[in-house]
Amino acid sequence: MRITESINKLIFCCLLFYACAHAESGKILVPMDSGQSNHLRAYGLTYACLKQGDTAKWLLNYRGGSFLLPNQQSLAEMALKWGITCQIVDSAAEALIYKEISDNNMESIHLEKSPKIAVYTPESAKPWDDAVTLALDYAQIPYTKIYDQDIIAGRLSEFDWLHLHHEDFTSQYSKFYTAFRNAEWYQESVFQATKLAHDLGFQSVADEKKAVAGKIAGFVDQGGLLFAMCYSTETLDIALAADGIDIVPPEIDGTPVTQDFNSKLDYTKTLAFEGFTVNPDPQTGYISDIDYNHANTPERIMARPFSLFDFSAKFDPIPCLLTQCHERVIKGFFGLTTSYTTPRVKKGTTILGKVDDNCVKYIYGKFGKGSFTFYAGHDPEDYSHAVYDKFTDLSQHPDSPGYRLILNNVLFPAAEKKKLKT
């Protein structure tokens, strides 16, 4: 069966290539419903279209959020190479598509530029550290790695989009102290973080990380787009709220925590969460009650599937864009932060995907002139990823609905802002 499917796919792709090479007009339709053979690389194809100076259309809610690209031979060759399902539509067929979009809960969004992408990651990061890096590499979407020294130097202004993963902005080293404090990699990470903080002119890692968190919040406030996953979503807001407060236990930094620190947290500085309490105990693995999977018990509870909301493509284009997928229920997966406690989510923040009324997984909100999207969990195709585990091979998951949510965010800044009403 697999051999037959591969032969049929090859024949189809060859016919597509021939049609693109000989057609005088028309467009390349990249369907994103269950008929697509490689959803993830379809995003890379669309990005490549923008990168070469062309524009494209994102057809929200049409066949799973399809893309409409110009009929370029270079794109046809790329689709053939990557095994992406495409078809040529002439002007009459294109008109029918737009008619269907006009008559239904669908919308056509103009994609006008390839965004400049930054991934916040230290040079020592391993492949399993970041699902977004895996997604970008697999889709062959270019990005620039930056870290604290770059942010302190003001380089965020060079980018449209910034990604954070499981960085601990509270400087507690992901609360690995109890389990891994004697491990060589843990001791090396503490040494490198301390050295970097001192090199940048800060007295402590905590002061340096809070400064970086403030710069990131400033980037969003000035119009930047932030996409964060896993621990960074929780610890970024904690660091912002704890500005001027010591919440790091003495076992880690040698100094006592501020007395009654939870009563002194400033939630007006945070992006997504409010009313939370911080847990500095190094003997427990959770850092606050933001994470629903730790809020009621120190032990992790099951990571359950979550459902994507259906949004109006015409009246709520941004949340609709961010939830484009060929499946509406996404399997659950763990992270250092696995999910969010609903009462801890700030009013005005849009819930994109939830487990139930008390537990959400995927949220979006505006902050100043920019916006943020937080996606809890570490890796959509690895239920419970642990230190030293092998990283996910996305060639085995080319149609991952959980990874599609990541790549929706990558193309978000390419969308025409006027149409999105941002």
Short note summarizing the structure:
By secondary structure, this protein is α+β, with helices and mostly antiparallel strands.
Q: Please give the share of residues in helix.
A: 25-40%
Question: How many angstroms does the end-to-end distance come to?
Answer: 47 Å
List the secondary-structure elements in sequence, H or E.
HEHEEHEHEEHEHEHHHEHHHEHEEEEEHH
Number of strands: 15
Number of helical runs? 15
- Which shape, going by the Cα principal axes? elongated
Structural class call reads alpha+beta
Largest sheet: 10 strands, mixed
Kindly provide the radius of gyration, computed on alpha-carbon positions and rounded to a whole number of angstroms: 22 Å
Mean pLDDT: 91
Strand residue content: 15-25%
List low-pLDDT spans.
1-8, 18-24
